[in-house]
Specification:
Blueprint (H helix, E strand, L loop, with lengths): L1 E10 L3 H12 L4 E4 L4 H6 L5 E2 L1 H9 L4 H6 L1 E3 L1 E6 L2 E6 H5 L3 E3 L2 H14 L3 E3 L4 E5 L7 E6 L2 E12 L17 E16 L9 E3 L6 E7 L2 E8 L10 H12 L12 E15 L2 E2 L2 E3 L5 E2 L7 H22 L3 H4 L1 H23 L7 H16 L1 H12 L21
Parallel strand pairs: 1-2, 1-11, 2-8, 5-13, 11-18
Antiparallel strand pairs: 3-7, 4-7, 5-6, 9-10, 10-11, 12-15, 12-16, 13-14, 14-15, 16-19, 17-18
Helix pairs in contact: 1-6, 1-8, 8-10, 11-12
This protein binds adenosine-5-diphosphoribose (APR) and P-hydroxybenzoic acid (PHB).
Length: 409
């Protein structure tokens, strides 16, 4: 059996685990990341693609926004569509802020490269992980691989292993309360090698179901169709997908998405999910391990970054100032932001999707609400300020001398 020690053991190398490890490193705190999958798998997995203003600032302050600043697409608004008409929500005009379109897997690539360049201990394809003694002063991560067992003794463990990870289920029975809502639909998403033909994202309400026009770069578009939760992707030929996209996204002025080879397609379920609290003993949950939002508000990756920002700052205060207060309050601090993002994601989802079970009254009410958002500056401002990202509560600096883009401040 091999034994090692670290200050913070991190399970999972998604955006949450990688960013946490990097922020801890900037604060002189050691960590080891255990990741079940290969590096290539983590770097290629197609996920979300919208970074809040708040997340971009965090990445810049942490000195990992070099490529993001060169290749990320600055989006100063989004469009909402109804009955083939588009209406723009101008973020900069309404809030002074914008969002950046940059794929989650690009963020993951940047963070892995930076962690490795800084000598970080990242263990891909690590084997089977289990957590021991989370209520003790020295919790342990146990890793079993090919008949060998390794143990890592930690001061703290961060469960950043996503929705299907083992960290959440390592809480004792009864320690967690689950809050959850499932939606009676899913998203069928494609990545297409097709030049973008709109500057901004288009969220389209349609009687056949919601549709979204998004992008990853000027050459790559990302498009989604509301579908059944049990939709069989094999029944969707590329032709059928494009035909449905034209029907739902096509606009009265003749605009419709440009076609191109489909690079990837899949069906993503929709759920709202939160566990409380985020901490038990010395185990702290962050990111998708603790909460899932439906993708309509583009909040998933951003919430993961907010959690680890709070966790890194709390651990810094503990180690550098012997102040345990922020760590003690980690769960409640995160949950305040998590619930606001949950509310917004649920609201965007309810506003734009077709709910089969809706009564004629509900349908009329939904249309009235969408028309209100499209015509009222106050309503549009509320959407905009949530979309670009609510401010982080803690204002303490997260960075210790690693800014690579000071000009952006
Ligand atoms: N042992 C080790 N690693 C694990 C285990 C395990 N038992 N279970 C899961 N993992 C790894 C996964 O392979 C994955 O790489 O944990 C990582 C979790 O990463 P994400 O699922 O990306 O979660 P998170 O870092 O919280 O990022 C949240 O991901 O789902 C999207 O929209 C969501 O953008 C948001 C972001
Ligand atoms: C995406 O580009 O994948 C995307 C964009 C906006 C969303 C959801 C997903 O709301």
């Amino acid at each position: 059996m091999a034994r090692s020690e670290t200050q913070v053991g991190i399970v999972g190398a998604g955006p949450a685990g990688l960013m946490l490890s990097h922020l801890l490193h900037l604060n002189g705190i050691s960590s080891i990341i255990l990741e079940a999958r290969s590096r290539a798998y983590c770097e290629e997995r197609v996920r979300a693609g919208v970074l809040e203003h708040t997340s971009v600032e965090m990445l810049r302050q942490a000195g990992v926004a070099g490529r993001l600043d060169r290749e990320g697409l600055r989006h100063e608004g989004i469009e909402l569509g109804l009955r083939g008409q588009r209406h723009r929500i101008p973020f900069v005009e309404l809030t002074g802020k914008f969002v950046t379109v940059y794929g989650q897997q690009e963020v993951v690539k940047d963070l892995i490269a930076r962690r490795l360049a800084d000598g970080g201990d990242l263990r891909f394809e690590c084997g089977t992980v289990s957590l021991r003694g989370i209520e003790s002063a020295k919790p342990t991560i146990r890793i079993e691989k090919d008949g060998n067992i390794d143990e890592i003794r930690c001061d703290y463990i961060a469960g950043c292993d996503g929705f299907h990870g083992i960290s959440r289920s390592s809480f004792p029975d009864g320690a967690l309360t689950v809050y959850e809502r499932n939606y009676p639909f899913a998203w069928l998403g494609i990545l297409a090698e097709a030049p973008t033909s709109r500057e901004e994202l288009l969220y389209m309400h349609h009687e056949r179901g919601f549709s979204l026009y998004s992008m990853r770069s000027p050459r790559i578009t990302r498009l989604y169709l509301q579908c059944r939760p049990d939709e069989n992707i094999n029944e969707w030929s590329d032709d059928r997908i494009w035909s449905e996209l034209h029907t739902r996204l096509g606009c009265a002025d003749g605009w419709h998405p440009t076609e191109g080879p489909v690079l990837q397609k899949g069906v993503t379920g929709m759920r709202s999910f939160v566990v409380e609290p985020l901490q038990h003993g010395r185990l702290f949950l962050a990111g998708d391990a603790a909460h899932i939002v439906p993708p309509t508000g583009a909040k998933g990756m951003n919430l993961a970054f907010a959690d680890v920002y709070y966790l890194a700052e709390a651990l810094r205060a503990l180690y550098a100032e012997n102040d345990p207060e922020k760590l003690r309050r980690y769960s409640e601090t995160c949950l305040r932001r998590i619930w606001k993002a949950q509310r917004f994601s649920w609201w965007m989802t309810s506003l734009l999707h077709r709910f089969e079970e809706d009564s004629p009254f509900d349908r009329r009410r939904q249309l009235a609400e969408l028309e209100y958002v499209m015509s009222s500056r106050a309503a549009a401002t509320s959407l905009a300020e949530n979309y670009v990202g609510l401010p982080l509560e803690v204002s303490a600096p997260i960075e210790r001398g690693a800014v690579d883009h000071p000009a952006n401040y």
